[in-house]
Amino acid sequence: MSDVLAIREFSDELAVHFRDINAEWINAMFRLEETDRDVLENPRARIIDAGGVILFVEAGGLGIVGACALQKTGATSYELTKMGVRESARGMKVGECLLAAIIERASSLGAEPLYLLTNARCAAAIHLYEKLGFRHDAEIMARYGARYERCDVAMRYHAEALP
């Protein structure tokens, strides 16, 4: 991890960044769905109090530039969701730093499966997910994919897939 990037835990004071960072990229590429609005407006209730995690990346001189959540969806299952990086911080490895931290946290929670739902238009993000151990998964798509209208890619984390 870069010396200028630091991981921060969720706090109610940082909730506005979770909402704004994610609304920025979702609105730029798609449209906010009702499920997005619910989670982004109520992160403590929908993620934290339900057994999940939200992490942020703070960049020196720029403040909070990235956010990502683990949403508990079953006894041990977690969805990696709402991962976004401010446009002003792209190219600084913020996404990779954040993804590595959230995978580490998921591992410490015993997440099985750890999965994500996305869209093929998010090619750069999909490449990063693949690089850090996620693989495309038809079973995850069948089980969870209907959650979002825009979902056409489902991936599951496989630690053994790492080089």
From TrEMBL:
Pfam family, one: Acetyltransf_7
Annotated N-acetyltransferase domain residues: 5-160
GO molecular-function terms, A-Z: N-acetyltransferase activity
Keyword Lyase: no
InterPro entries named in the record: Acyl_CoA_acyltransferase, GNAT_dom, NAT_camello-type
Keywords: Transferase
The name this protein goes by in its record: MarR family transcriptional regulator
Organism, scientific name: Rhodanobacter thiooxydans
